[in-house]
Design brief:
There is one protein chain. The protein is an alpha+beta fold. It has three domains: 210 residues; 224 residues, Rossmann fold; 66 residues, no CATH class. The protein has a 15-stranded antiparallel beta sheet that branches. A hairpin with a 3-residue loop joins strand 9 and strand 10.
């Protein structure tokens, strides 16, 4: 289950922030840990600072202009100095962030100051031994964070020029970013005259860095849908950086037709029209079995991709539709309400809303000519598995259910485990990580009780999603699985870091307790999206060229195609 709330536009001042909503590693085994980075410049240090680079980055968020960052890099007597001025345009307001970072000759940070004109003004300073970050806010609480180990890099929030050292350091390598998180720099990928490198921040966010010689020319943060391109090189980078993803074609012999699912208004739920695609074999004869494909958490289109420019785009449900169509099974998949071409408001939707949307789709499929109303199968990924089980438990005519990386624990337990994993990768001390986790737990306790969120940064990460979270907290997912009587297929990536094998085991136990015929499949080396991955960490989701595992697709298609018709009731 992906963390549903919107990612904030930050990099890694303390640890990369944001969810962890949905990879073959281009690095992984080839990385060689290096205790300290070498000095990258052999020239004599100047007596006075000498400017070695001046540039401006054009920022875009979800494909729309979001501001600019002007920066200067100077060689000092014994290191470097990076000065930056960021002008972010957010929701019609201008946000100004000014920073100065001083490093030694190997780009290790020694001191920094960041002034952020937001919420009355915030000043952050870095310095001392060990390095200590002190944040003073005019409105709000101050904070102090101390490095947990020797530090090689400092990447301040919203300051992309701080990635400039990545272009000067040797690669591949492992470095340590403040306050102690692992920073993995991948092998170079040549794209003359440029070179691209992957940079994984605390295993949670992957940055794609484009360099020209040792100059930074672009930064992409796909999970955040954020792109920064050097103004003077933008024309040359147009085909290389931030290029729109191209949807994979469906398998030969399939046709895709538009459908609209109308969901009536009810208490606590507005009406909506879901924009959907029905895929079926072009040459099929006779009524076909049909699978309804249900997306996981987060605002996603019918392929389970982020909408618009940027974001993670794997096309999991599109790949499933193609595989099932080749096996003679029709599929229906829809944009989430309020997303893509669907109407309604996504932000107001709760678990019962998504269940009602799925029930409306099931009813429509049973009325569709050419489809077998007795062979409607539900295929749900992540949160979609919760929806699938709930719909099937209430509808004995559902012929079968496939749960793909679906949670088998309460939502708050799953999400807090994700938070704990992220904190552990972020380089915090054990005490700091425990305190941060406790603040997340306090936020969840307030949500469960219907109380206002505490005034903490951790609670702010869940703001806006309280009703959705509370609806999951009130839902007994295992009870729904125990109520199933139809064939059930439970699939789990063995190295999934978001929904783990513990969840799959709990779902299988519940199904067997209820007497449902169940097949449980664990796929080695597959992550939450059923893609081969080195670690399963969410940073790998941004790896270019990821493909859904063909063995997983083949086994899912075989299960769905073999589901027998339910007897008429």
């Amino acid at each position: 289950m992906l963390r549903r709330l919107t990612l904030v536009v930050v990099t890694a001042g303390c640890a990369a922030r944001g969810p962890g909503g949905a990879a073959p590693s281009a690095v992984g085994p080839s990385l060689r840990p290096s205790p300290r980075p070498p000095v990258v410049a052999a020239v004599a240090a100047p007596a006075a600072p000498i400017v070695v680079d001046v540039g401006e980055l054009e920022l875009s968020l979800r494909g729309k202009p979001a501001g600019r960052e002007a920066f200067t890099i100077a060689r000092t007597a014994d290191g470097f100095r990076i000065d930056s001025e960021v002008r972010l345009e957010q929701r019609g307001t201008l946000r100004l962030i000014v920073s100065e970072l001083e490093t030694d000759a190997a780009w290790r940070p020694r001191a920094a100051t960041v002034r952020d004109v937001v919420d009355g003004g915030t000043t952050t300073t870095l310095g001392g031994a060990p390095l200590t970050l002190r944040t003073t806010a005019r409105l709000g609480a101050s904070a102090v964070r101390t490095a947990s180990r020797p530090i090689d890099l400092y990447l301040a929030d919203n300051t992309l020029a701080h990635f400039a050292p990545i272009c000067a350091l040797p690669a591949p390598a492992v470095r340590t970013g403040f306050p102690g998180m692992e920073v993995r720099i991948g092998d170079d990928r040549a794209a003359p005259p440029f070179v691209q490198r992957t940079v994984d921040l605390g295993a949670t966010v992957r940055a794609l860095i484009t360099c020209e010689a040792t100059r930074l020319v672009a930064v992409e943060l796909p999970a955040l849908a954020l792109v920064a391109v050097r103004s003077d090189r933008a024309p040359a980078l147009r085909e290389l950086v931030g290029a729109p993803a191209i949807k994979a074609p469906l398998a030969a012999g399939l046709i895709e037709e538009p459908r609209t699912i109308r969901v009536a208004a009810a208490r606590g739920r507005e009406a909506a029209e879901l924009a959907c695609s029905l895929v079926r074999p072009a040459a099929a004869a006779g009524p076909l079995p049909v699978a309804l494909l249900l997306t996981g958490s987060g605002a996603q289109d019918r392929d389970e991709d982020a909408v618009g420019a940027g974001g993670i785009k794997l096309g999991l449900l599109r790949a499933i539709a193609s595989a099932l169509g080749s096996a003679g099974v029709a599929t229906l998949r829809c944009d989430d309400r309020g997303i893509g071409a669907s109407t309604g408001e996504f932000g107001a939707a709760t678990l019962p809303t998504f269940i009602a949307d799925a029930q409306a789709a099931v009813g429509s499929l049973r009325r569709e000519r050419g489809l077998d109303p007795r062979r409607v199968i539900l295929v749900g990924h992540s949160e979609g598995g919760v929806v699938a089980a709930a719909v099937a438990a209430a509808d004995p005519r559902v012929a079968g259910v496939a749960l793909l990386a679906a949670p088998g624990r309460p939502v708050d337990e799953v999400l807090l485990a994700q938070v704990a994993h992220t904190l552990a990768k972020g380089g915090l001390t054990d005490a700091e990580a425990a305190a941060a986790l406790a603040r997340h737990q306090a936020a969840f306790a307030a949500i469960r009780a219907g109380q206002p969120l505490p005034d903490t940064a951790e609670a702010d990460e869940w703001a806006g999603g309280e009703a959705w979270l509370r609806s999951h907290m009130r839902h007994d997912g295992l009870a729904a699985v125990r109520a199933l009587a139809c064939p059930l297929w439970i699939a789990q990536g063995a190295i999934d870091q978001q929904v783990t094998p513990v969840d799959a085991a709990a779902l299988a136990a519940a199904a067997r307790a209820g007497g449902a015929p169940v097949v449980e499949r664990s796929f080695p080396s597959l992550d939450h999206a059923f893609v081969v991955s080195a670690t399963g960490d969410v940073a790998e989701y941004a790896t270019p060229g990821r493909q859904v595992d063909p063995t997983f697709l083949a086994e899912l298609a075989a299960f769905v195609a073999a589901v027998p018709a339910r007897p008429d009731r």
